[in-house]
Specification:
Number of helices: 16
Helix content: 25-40%
Oligomer: single chain
Number of strands: 15
Number of domains: 2
Strand content: 15-25%
Distance between the termini: 34 Å
Largest sheet: 7 strands, mixed
Shape: globular
């Protein structure tokens, strides 16, 4: 496979300055191992998916880590999270002498460990699958919005040599992910109900997450649904987008929206097999919003920035799909599947701008808005602008 450079690879030297460890977190098959090995070619590599390596580290952490006087890459460290306490001791005993790269596909086991054991010693960086701008030079890059949504961004699907069938690969990926990460993390008694839950979540991508509705459909309690969705979050399968917290004289929706981290995976769960079926699917608009939302996330995270993303919706139906908050400014983003740049699509942005102006407290201002749409040309829309779906990363560059 031809190596496809990641945006994060250019930033890593500045992001890790002053730290003795970096933790690369992200979904399985998102490219963490490749990024680690290409960015730190001189560090020894330890694959903790190997039962032998895992057992050796668990049985004698101090002896195992002492083999690497300058540090190492510890791949899939969530398999031996207790080793982090010993790593802290080693770092403190030899300040400035070692550097460690840790990768992990599960946040559930690692976030408390990283926070407690390596506070001030490690920087955490999230790597998601390929963004559209990263695969522009790939021979299998998506040519249309439908192609992009259906394929998603997992790196193996952009390997020209393997020419994998996206639907089959995604189905196998999901099965392996649930068996290896979800069930290992959370003993699920009713696996049939859980599998049904995952598919129901796919049918709700881009929509308000209502635990009670899912609980009734699955015949389980609300706590179970909330626990299950938190595990999907921690395993990088879904992400919850919180509503914006400021009230500008309107009653706001308080529940989060649920998004799949990869639109291709959501399509596979919905049994969408080709672009024609996708374009006619009742969830076409929600899947476009899912793809665009994750592109915004990638554009922020892969620049080493906090996402700081929200959505805004009032109880009477006024809404904006995304808000990015940066330096006291809100940057609104609308996401539309249509290829027509109709100025009426910016109505939500104009409503929020008017409400903020009426409030006039000066604590926040509304920056230039973006309307991401299915067309191919950038067009002005008063103080906002329409941008083509494939230009999200470039359009977000000016936002700090």
């Amino acid at each position: 496979m031809q190596y496809i450079p990641r945006r994060l690879s250019h930033l890593l030297p500045s992001l890790i300055q002053g730290y003795q460890a970096v933790f690369l977190a992200g979904p399985r098959q998102s490219g963490k191992t490749t990024l680690a090995r290409t960015s730190f070619p001189d560090l020894p590599f330890v694959n903790l998916e190997s039962p032998l390596e895992r057992a050796a580290l668990a049985d004698d952490p101090i002896g195992f880590l002492s083999q690497f006087p300058s540090g190492a890459i510890l791949d899939e460290i969530q398999n031996v999270p207790e080793a982090l306490s010993y790593l802290q001791v080693l770092i403190d005993e030899r300040p400035g002498e070692t550097f460690w790269v840790l990768t992990g596909s599960r946040q559930l086991d690692l976030q408390p460990s990283i926070g407690q054991s390596l506070a001030g010693r490690a920087v955490m960086i999230e790597l998601l699958p390929f963004s559209h701008d990263e695969v522009l030079n790939s021979p299998v890059r998506p040519a249309t919005l439908e192609d992009a949504v259906l394929r998603g961004g997992y790196p193996p699907l952009f390997d020209e040599d393997r020419q994998l069938d996206p639907g089959r690969w995604l189905e196998n990926y999901l099965t392996a992910l649930i068996n290896r990460d979800v069930y290992d993390t959370l003993p699920v008694r009713n696996r049939i109900a859980f599998d049904h839950f995952v598919r129901l979540c796919a049918a709700r991508t881009g929509q308000i997450f209502e635990a009670a509705s899912l609980a009734r459909e699955l015949a389980v309690d609300n706590k179970t649904v909330k626990l299950w969705v938190s595990v999907l979050e921690q395993c990088f399968i879904v992400r919850l987008l919180r509503p914006y917290h400021r009230n500008y004289g309107k009653r706001l929706v308080k529940r989060p929206k649920l998004f799949f981290v990869d639109s291709g995976l959501a399509c596979r769960l919905l049994q969408i097999g080709d672009v024609n079926q996708l374009r006619l699917h009742p969830l076409w608009g929600a899947l476009v919003e899912t793809w665009c939302f994750t592109e915004v996330l990638k554009a922020r995270l892969h620049r080493g920035l906090r996402p700081d993303c929200w959505f805004w919706r009032t109880s009477d139906g006024k809404e904006i799909d995304l808000l990015i908050e940066a330096g006291g400014t809100l940057y609104p983003i609308e996401i539309k599947s249509t290829a027509t740049s109709d100025p009426r699509l910016a109505k939500g942005i104009r409503v929020l701008r008017s409400l903020v102006a009426e409030r006039g407290d000066g604590s926040v201002e509304i920056g230039p808005g973006l309307i991401v749409y299915g067309g191919d040309a950038e067009r002005p829309c008063r103080e906002d602008r329409f941008i083509p779906w494939q230009s999200i990363a470039a359009a977000l560059e000016p936002i700090p």
